[in-house]
Amino acid sequence: MAKRPKWLDTAVFYEIYPQSFKDTDGDGIGNIDGITEKLSYIKELGCSAIWINPCFDSPFGDAGYDVADYCKVAPRYGTNDDLVRLFEKAHELGMHVILDLVPGHTSWKHPWFLESMKAEKNEFTDRYIWTDSIWEEPAGYGSLRGISDRDGSCVVNFFTHQPALNYGFYKPDRPWQQPMDSEGALSTREAVKDVMRFWLSKGCDGFRVDMAGSLVKNDEDGKGTIALWQDMREFLDREYPEAAMVSEWGEPDKSLQGGFHMDFLLHFGPSHYNDLFRCEAPFFEGRGDASEFVAKYMENYEKSERKGLICIPSGNHDMDRLARHISEKNRRLAFAFLLSMPGAPYIYYGDEIGMNYVEGLTSVEGGYGRTGSRSPMQWDDSGNAGFSTAPSDKLYIPQDPDENRPTAKKQIEDEDSLYHEVQKLIGIRNSEKALGNLGEIEFICNGEKGKPLAYIRSMGEEKILVVINPTGSECEISVEGDPGEVIYSYGEGIKTAGNICKISPASAAFVRI
Ligand code: NOJ
User: Fold this and answer.
1) Nearest to 199 by CA among 247, 239, 157, 227
2) For the segment 302-318, what is each residue's pLDDT rounded down to a tens digit?
């Protein structure tokens, strides 16, 4: 297992979608200086690290996940120097910054792709995956066709304007499919190492890696992609051992083998994450069933050496805001869960103040249904909720039109707000090792329909029982050992007698045992 940078062991992350966080130059779109200005807000909440979605030059067909220059901050966000200042300021505050690395594909406007489209062979001919003829489409993959002088169809990764970079095929089965050790595939790897070097040498603390598990093609079991990341790990161990690497992969056994420090729990695929938050009957709305989530979580936990290296986000730029599915009161229960699980928690900007999903928006920059979760942060009661001084119709995405929309200011002023609940929970997590990123977990009640979630977090001798009951009824659980001091309680809380705990409806509690 890769040696982790010390700070990651206690990190609580805050995810920032840079377009929508804070605009300091009045153009209606967030920028790097805006993030720097708000670092103290994030620190005050209790978070110690930030993840910034791609902030690089791009035609923004997928909100920046279509990079046109990996080594240049998009002018709309500022300059490379602004980003370096952000790193410095964060470090002064004892915080860390990870950037979003998008190694799977570029924009079709990237100079590498423009070269790769040329009929004459050049340095970038094999930087992407092309079939040999326009009449052959790559079976099993989407493709981009008919826009180049070069004869061939180019494999794409996500949207059709995101051509896939060539890391080779684990098992090539067509003449145009190059092996992983082909010259083109190896040179792509080196180019990505150069991108990492570029930002790490400027003070960035690591990367969240986009679609990290799908780089090598025809690689059903992920063996090729694991080997690829092991090579990246050797490079990092040699040159930047302090860089944190967090993968968007969703299979921690594979990503950790590949040398990542932590892996995200994904909101799609087999994780059952959204059984808890976003489905017909979410567990945290008191109507659902968490048992399949728990079974899958424990399967991954066992496979990843029982280390808390699975990161559970409150939400992100790709999924509905928590508030779209879970009422304000129940969201506190959701946060009690998110902030008492192993792995570094990730709070999506605005979730801490209960920002809404903005309904009915026209898609912005490839957001489609995701656009409603990407609206500008609501800071205060000034114009545009303090996000920007631009005219409202010039904002990157329209803001929540609700006149009672939450703002950071209102939430900070109200002692009983969600913000303060989240702040309190982070504070408790930060002061109890057992509840932290690396504490172990053992479930004693799996939240099957009508039951609470209950688990014991431990670190050495320290043990904390966490019980979260979103159901409408009191529930009883028995624990080994004597329940002692209650260190957190929400709702009517918990009553203990001997080894029996009774948890009230719509309540949560953390108890020392
Ligand atoms: C995952 C990112 O989170 C998402 O926003 C993006 O559209 C795709 N990867 C493609 O890069």
Assistant:
1) 239
2) 988 787 789 999 999 99
Contact criterion met (CB below 8 Å) for 26 and 62: no
Contacts by 294-301, CB closer than 8 A, 24 or more apart: 294/443, 294/446, 294/447, 294/453, 295/446, 296/270, 296/271, 296/272, 297/265, 297/271, 297/272, 298/443, 300/251, 300/252, 300/253, 301/342, 301/441
Instruction: Indicate whether 159 and 238 sit together in one domain.
Output: no
Nearest-CA neighbor of 205 among 84, 316, 64, 315?
84
301, 334: one domain: yes
Please tell me the distance between residue 438's alpha carbon and the centre of ligand 1 in angstroms.
28
Q: Tens of pLDDT along 358-414?
A: 999 999 999 999 999 999 999 999 999 999 999 999 999 999 999 999 999 999 999
The ligand 1 atom nearest the CA atom of 317: 5
Residues spanned by the domain of 227: 8-103+186-429
Whether the Cβ atoms of residue 438 and residue 307 lie closer than 8 Å to each other: yes
Q: Report whether pLDDT(9) > 90.
A: yes
**Minimal-distance CA residue to ligand 1 atom 11:** 65
The pTM score is 0.98
Instruction: Tell me: do 363 and 503 sit in the same domain.
Output: no
Pocket of ligand 1 (CB under 6 A): 62, 65, 102, 158, 210-211, 317-318
In the listed set 399, 429, 459, which residue is the last one of a domain according to the structure?
Answer: 429
